[in-house]
Structure formats: structure tokens, C-alpha cells
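Recall that a protein's primary structure is simply its ordered list of amino acids. Everything else, from secondary elements to tertiary packing, is in principle encoded there. The following example makes that idea concrete.
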Amino acid sequence: MGFHRGGRRWVPGPVFDFAFSLAGGPPRPRLCFLATAGGDQATAISGFYGAFAGTEVHASHLALFDMPNVGDVRAHLLAQEVIWVDRGSLVNLVAVWQAHGLDTILRECWEAGVVLAGESAGSLCWHQGGTTDSFGPKVTPAAGLGFLPYANAVHYGQRRDSFRTLIGDGTLPEVGYATDAGAGLHYGGAELVEAVCDRANAAAYRVERTGEGSVKETVIEPRRLR
């Protein structure tokens, strides 16, 4: 859930209008793109700007490679209405953010009412921990920023077994939320409000530890955004 990248240019999915509505529906929403998880690749940054060219969205980005592209990172992020985090390596993203103090700045943004969102690593990063392929094809647990006290799994069709095992054995928090491709989670503060989706056959799931090594999985039917 995020950008559709299959054609010649990126196309923003309906989740962006949803995020802008959560920010109060400003006529020219300020949206900042963070592509840290992918190493601030020029193609990703270009794709982001192309997606919103000719719209009322006031688009900007924060790059950290090789150095920050804005003079005052904190002021820039606090001035946004929505911050969108792109996909890539969760482990690298968290390490770089912590080195630059973005873990503290982004928590301040969240507490100030800025809408924090993203896809894949951009979902995992807000949670206590989750499943990632940052170290290679084998899925392993890794820590997020911990704004949300839950475990998280994306690409759940491929990571269901590992996610259930890691919650059941206590490696990850006792409650976790997972999503299929095309589904997303909407939190109000640290509480889940609803699941949303942008396509058919995309669901979300609550997975909770019920005993040593055992878990209960509950399907959360999402609301279709468009």
C-alpha cells in the first residue's frame, strides 16, 4: 500500500488522500518523503516528485546520504503534515536514523500531530519490532523505533510462519499486527483504529500469544479506500 510503481511513473495510491484527511484535509498538504531505507536512491526520490507533479501537494524530501539535504532537519520535519517512509532495509533505516537523532525528532513529530506513515520498512519502523529480510533472504526479527508497543509483519503471505513463531516463543511482543500487500493499519495514538486496503483480497491480522509457543490469529477485515 503506497505507490504503484509498475508503469513509467509512480502513481500515488488512495492511502495518501487518507493520510491527508487524517491531517485535517489541508488544501496544500505538506508531505515529506524519507527514502533512508533504500539508501536515498535518486530513482526513488525522482519517482516521488513525479508522482505529485502538477498536484496541490507541497512535496519535499529528507535525504541523509551523504549528508542531510536540509539545514534544520527537526524544523523541516515538524513543519510537515504527513511524513511518508519508503520501503527498503528496516535495520539500516533504524541505525541511520538513530545516528542522526531522527528517532527523537520523529517521536516529537508524532506527539505534535504529524501523520507518520509508510510502506514495508515504513510500516515496520514505528513498531516495537517485526520480521525483516534486512540480513538476507531468511526472515529474522529486528527492532523498530517502538512508538507502537506491538510486533508488525508486512508481506504476511510470505512471513506468516516466522511471525507466528517469533510471537509464540516471546522473541517479539505478545501482540502483533500483520498485513497483506495492499492493506494498511491506522493507529490513533498507540491504539489500532482500523485496517484499510486499496485492493480486493487484502486483509490485516491480529496475532497474539496465548501460551508458550502458541498463538491466536484473528482476521481484521479492512475498509476499502477506493
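The chain has a mean pLDDT of 97. The radius of gyration is 17 Å.
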